[in-house]
Amino acid sequence: MKAFIYERYGPPETLRMAEVDKPVPKVDEVLVKVLAASVNAADWHVLRGKPLFSRATLGLLRPKHQILGGDVAGRVEAVGGGVTRFKPGDEVYANLLDHGYGGFAEYVSVPVAVMSLKPASLSFEEAAAVPMAATTALQGLGHHGELRPGQRVLINGATGGVGSFAVQIAKASGAEVTGVTSTPNLDLVRSLGADHVLDYTATDFTRGGGRYDLILDTVGNRSVPDLKRALAPGGRAAVTGFTSVARLLGVSLRGGKEIAQVQAHVTTRDLELLSELIEAGKLRPQIDRRYRFADIPAAIAYLEQGRARAKVVVEMA
Ligand SMILES: NC(=O)c1ccc[n+]([C@@H]2O[C@H](COP(=O)([O-])OP(=O)(O)OC[C@H]3O[C@@H](n4cnc5c(N)ncnc54)[C@H](OP(=O)(O)O)[C@@H]3O)[C@@H](O)[C@H]2O)c1
Hints:
Blueprint: E1 2-5, E2 16-19, E3 29-39, H1 41-48, H2 55-58, E4 71-79, E5 91-95, E6 107-111, E7 115-117, H3 124-128, H4 131-142, E8 152-156, H5 161-172, E9 176-181, H6 186-191, E10 196-199, E11 212-217, H7 224-229, E12 231-239, H8 245-254, E13 259-261, H9 268-279, E14 287-292, H10 296-304, E15 311-315
Parallel strand pairs: 8-9, 8-11, 9-10, 11-12, 12-13, 14-15
Antiparallel strand pairs: 1-2, 3-4, 3-6, 3-15, 4-5, 5-7
Helix pairs in contact: 4-5
The chain binds NADP nicotinamide-adenine-dinucleotide phosphate.
């Protein structure tokens, strides 16, 4: 089968298309014919082996896993001996970040614990946009407890992959949502359902006087004191992004109970929950750009610029 592989850390041009063996599903895995994929910030972090400490798990000198790609949607081709929940022909979506990646290929073996039937109302490209970003939004928003109607929620980075889902999920919970973005994206954030929008080029949300019960910082560019200033009494913040190792450490070491650095892990349960929201018409992936399989390096390069308006997807056909 064809796959994009990388044998050393580097920029997107490091990836090359190669002919590799088709994977064989283990007992608790499903072989999926990949029909669409999406690109996440994790792909370019892992491709570059950055931050450097991540190489302790990714491979010290060279990558342990040669095929990148976390988010996939496709059709079940074969199932492992212990799999009863899926059968050949099922349309599924999944995320492989906790299982060695492998999605930028014609076929991938997926553990059943990180996949679900694809929401019927979504195309394969739309479905592939969902797993990593929407799960991160869901787990970030729920980290400190279930959202309650009327809570004031601020989403920093409301037009990113994670933020575009977070605005919609917070609205679906009945929260009063404020989205932070830049001038060209204000209308997009409104169209996602935000009650209020803040332009970060004109207003610093940590100094504007607004106070929030929950802040989801998908960018990770704010310090602990900044975030604390914008919290209402009893308020909490969850940080899912990071812009530097110093910021990451700052939040992890000094955030206390109020401010948590959250690492998302995709599970079947959360994918099923997201499918329900999608089928109820409360959640819809926003697609910024579509790339062809052969152009995956360009898709990653685009995302790495940090200006994507929601999701970047890859059509495999
Ligand atoms: N913890 C986890 O499990 C997890 C999972 C997924 C992602 N992440 C991390 O979360 C971060 C975001 O991921 P993503 O997929 O949402 O990234 P993304 O799609 O690449 O984010 C791009 C968006 O960020 C916005 N942005 C950039 N600077 C901003 C600022 N100063 N204030 C507000 N918005 C800003 C941009 O809007 P403008 O063009 O308007 O600036 C753009 O729409 C990354 O660091 C990623 O590594 C973590």
